[in-house]
Amino acid sequence: MNRAPLWRAVAAFAVIAISAVLAFTMTPRLGLDLRGGTQLVFESKDSATVKADAAATDRALDVLRRRADALGVVDPTLVRSGEKRIIVELPGVLDPRQAAEVIGRTAQLAFHPVLGVAEAGDRDAVKDENGTPLKIGPAAITGDGVTGAAERSDPQRGPGWWVTVDFRDADAWQRLTGTAACEPEGDPKRRIAIVLDREVISSPQVDPSVPCRAGMPGGSADITGSFTYEDARELAVLIKGGALPVPLDLVEQRTVGPTLGAAAIEASAKAALVGLVLTAGFIILVYRISGLLATIALACYGLISYAALVAMGATFTLPGLAGFVLAIGMAIDANVLVFERAREEYGKAVGLRGALDRGFKNAWSAIADSNVTTLIAAGLLFWLASGPVKGFGVTLGVGVLASLVSAMLITRVLVQAAVGRISPRVSGLASQGAVRTWLAHRKPRLMRAGKLFLTVAGGLAVVALAGLVVRGLNVGVEFTGGRLVEFATSRPVPADVAGRAVAQAGFPAAVVQAADDGVTVRAAELGLAETARIEQALEPHGGEVTKRREEFIGPSLGEELRRNALIALGVAVAMQLVYLAFRFRWTFGAAAVLALLVDVAIVVGLFAWLGKPIDGVFVAAMLTIVGYSVNDKVVVFDRVRELWAARPKEPLATAVDGAIVQTLPRTVNTGLGALFILVALMAFGGDSLRDFAIALVAGIVTGTLSSAFVAGPAAVALGRFDRRPPVAPAKRKASPGRSGSGAVL
């Protein structure tokens, strides 16, 4: 007795049960673009005495962590990225100026004796808090000699705040104050200069009650000045945190308001729900009971994918949610492949159960090949992308693996359990379908017009790429460097009015875009203070103006991200070519990549003509298109190889025609499943998700058409350079009959 179905059922139940426990007992970790806050990315630089290596960056990370803790930030995240970069996430901190100034200051603290008032032109002079130039001696106490600091106030001492500092070496402080106390009262030499980052923050006189040479005992001192509470607290945080071992440059900064994050989560949930309902309705309409059971498996896929991400501790980002929603549409692909193959096998009079078994067996090759191509794209996103787009790569990769479990295990268990209890007609697998029946009757010979198809495809690619010359690419701040700020306004501001307001604020070259509920400003030379000035300039026109989102990318990082994006696309195409050449013959791989280049050219040209931004989310969409496009062509060429090997004396063009006709129902059904999800994203997502969906819709449509009208004719044309006879795909060895408790999953 074959117990494989029983063990599959046990495995499916175990996977679902474990996923349910993880999903309902673990809390997801939301990225800052969903919960609100500020992300800072610092890059360590060499100093005169210290090289900015991994060890120095780790020491700087410890200092930043102490500063974040002292600021009272709830659940801050600080990690080193690479050898020289530190990523700091501060949930709830919406003032990037405060975060950057407090977290990233060098904070070199020192206490110096004052040697007198400096002469005019003295380059070594430092100005005190009143602007008087002072000549100071070598540091008597550095930041390493400080053990703690805290802000203080006392109504009995009068209004205001000061900072109390505790010293590790009480004798050093006593000697420094004892020497100063020997000078006459009012003499500049009686002062102690407290210097932070080469700037005198306070230079108090030693109190007249302190005796000469005796100094101030106790190992503590008060730094006084015209401090507000925020000033005193900031200074205490810097002193207590210690000095950074190496200077840090702010190379990236993102700030997102909590309302925008909540809206993104709600929009993604709506898109997922609507897309799932539309996809479920479609697959049930086409495949009836089998489609209904596949829909149940699809819901299990969502549970498995979510549980895996939570268990991994993955951070959910806005592009990551888009990847999670998109993977629902892609997860239907394996089910469609199996069901369409089962329909073909049922026509050979093998019975419903036999057709289903053969459908799972014969569809596995195409399913495995197509999923490998998507995993390549997901891996490149995780390896070369930065920020939230990494989350898209993670969710896409996890979604692909979860979809395999959903289709090849859960769907198989459910459908096989129902096969003996329902009629073939109700199952949805006995009917060949209207599209397949029509194609089988007409038997179109598409390859006869192969040259025409290639000419039309080339013309479309040229027209699309002409947009690069005529309109140019709207390269986002992520790749050019600069700052992008999105303001929410209580009333609409016309684009020309917003542009004049920003120009009057001092930024005539800034790129200004206006919508019904806000204004977006992008400029290369735009600092935090200038952002506040623009906000004030918009208030007379937009009513209540609040900062909804802010991104800053340093020029060096922008260049690096731009280079990584080009590398990712180039490596993706190269790896697909190598993989296809390995799995098939090189002519099939070259034809698939040629069609892929047409797909990419059309999508890039479309964004150029429409003026849509080219940013990290667009690169994520392009890599997804690469995976999807090659996925579709793998299915076609897998069938070409099979048909050509069965009839090796027939021309390759005949096998290509037959493969296109036989796989077209699968292609149409899979494409529609993904399009339902993307239409939902376009309807409910924000601007970035809408552009993401537009790119994918264009990529899926062109990828589907290019499989038949570019890849097929190109494979026939290139076939003249490879005269080898067709080789049948490797057959799996038949397993000997089993009895007893043996099982194969």
Automatic annotation (TrEMBL):
<dbReference type="Pfam" id="PF22599">
    <property type="entry name" value="SecDF_P1_head"/>
</dbReference>
<feature type="transmembrane region" description="Helical">
    <location>
        <begin position="616"/>
        <end position="637"/>
    </location>
</feature>
<feature type="transmembrane region" description="Helical">
    <location>
        <begin position="452"/>
        <end position="470"/>
    </location>
</feature>
<feature type="transmembrane region" description="Helical">
    <location>
        <begin position="589"/>
        <end position="610"/>
    </location>
</feature>
<comment type="similarity">
    <text>Belongs to the SecD/SecF family. SecF subfamily.</text>
</comment>
<keyword id="KW-0472">Membrane</keyword>
<dbReference type="InterPro" id="IPR005665">
    <property type="entry name" value="SecF_bac"/>
</dbReference>
<dbReference type="GO" id="GO:0005886">
    <property type="term" value="C:plasma membrane"/>
</dbReference>
<feature type="transmembrane region" description="Helical">
    <location>
        <begin position="322"/>
        <end position="342"/>
    </location>
</feature>
<dbReference type="InterPro" id="IPR022646">
    <property type="entry name" value="SecD/SecF_CS"/>
</dbReference>
<comment type="function">
    <text>Part of the Sec protein translocase complex. Interacts with the SecYEG preprotein conducting channel. SecDF uses the proton motive force (PMF) to complete protein translocation after the ATP-dependent function of SecA.</text>
</comment>
<dbReference type="InterPro" id="IPR055344">
    <property type="entry name" value="SecD_SecF_C_bact"/>
</dbReference>
<dbReference type="GO" id="GO:0065002">
    <property type="term" value="P:intracellular protein transmembrane transport"/>
</dbReference>
<feature type="domain" description="Protein export membrane protein SecD/SecF C-terminal">
    <location>
        <begin position="535"/>
        <end position="718"/>
    </location>
</feature>
<comment type="subunit">
    <text>Forms a complex with SecF. Part of the essential Sec protein translocation apparatus which comprises SecA, SecYEG and auxiliary proteins SecDF. Other proteins may also be involved.</text>
</comment>
<dbReference type="Pfam" id="PF21760">
    <property type="entry name" value="SecD_1st"/>
</dbReference>
<keyword id="KW-1133">Transmembrane helix</keyword>
<keyword id="KW-0811">Translocation</keyword>
<keyword id="KW-0653">Protein transport</keyword>
<dbReference type="GO" id="GO:0043952">
    <property type="term" value="P:protein transport by the Sec complex"/>
</dbReference>
<dbReference type="GO" id="GO:0015450">
    <property type="term" value="F:protein-transporting ATPase activity"/>
</dbReference>
<dbReference type="InterPro" id="IPR022813">
    <property type="entry name" value="SecD/SecF_arch_bac"/>
</dbReference>
<dbReference type="InterPro" id="IPR022645">
    <property type="entry name" value="SecD/SecF_bac"/>
</dbReference>
<dbReference type="InterPro" id="IPR048631">
    <property type="entry name" value="SecD_1st"/>
</dbReference>
<feature type="transmembrane region" description="Helical">
    <location>
        <begin position="692"/>
        <end position="718"/>
    </location>
</feature>
<dbReference type="InterPro" id="IPR005791">
    <property type="entry name" value="SecD"/>
</dbReference>
<dbReference type="InterPro" id="IPR048634">
    <property type="entry name" value="SecD_SecF_C"/>
</dbReference>
<dbReference type="GO" id="GO:0006605">
    <property type="term" value="P:protein targeting"/>
</dbReference>
<comment type="similarity">
    <text>Belongs to the SecD/SecF family. SecD subfamily.</text>
</comment>
<feature type="domain" description="SecDF P1 head subdomain">
    <location>
        <begin position="130"/>
        <end position="246"/>
    </location>
</feature>
<keyword id="KW-0812">Transmembrane</keyword>
<keyword id="KW-0813">Transport</keyword>
<feature type="transmembrane region" description="Helical">
    <location>
        <begin position="391"/>
        <end position="415"/>
    </location>
</feature>
<protein>
    <recommendedName>
        <fullName>Multifunctional fusion protein</fullName>
    </recommendedName>
</protein>
<dbReference type="InterPro" id="IPR054384">
    <property type="entry name" value="SecDF_P1_head"/>
</dbReference>
<comment type="subunit">
    <text>Forms a complex with SecD. Part of the essential Sec protein translocation apparatus which comprises SecA, SecYEG and auxiliary proteins SecDF. Other proteins may also be involved.</text>
</comment>
<feature type="transmembrane region" description="Helical">
    <location>
        <begin position="668"/>
        <end position="686"/>
    </location>
</feature>
<feature type="transmembrane region" description="Helical">
    <location>
        <begin position="565"/>
        <end position="582"/>
    </location>
</feature>
<feature type="transmembrane region" description="Helical">
    <location>
        <begin position="296"/>
        <end position="316"/>
    </location>
</feature>
<feature type="transmembrane region" description="Helical">
    <location>
        <begin position="271"/>
        <end position="289"/>
    </location>
</feature>
<keyword id="KW-1003">Cell membrane</keyword>
<feature type="domain" description="Protein export membrane protein SecD/SecF C-terminal">
    <location>
        <begin position="252"/>
        <end position="416"/>
    </location>
</feature>
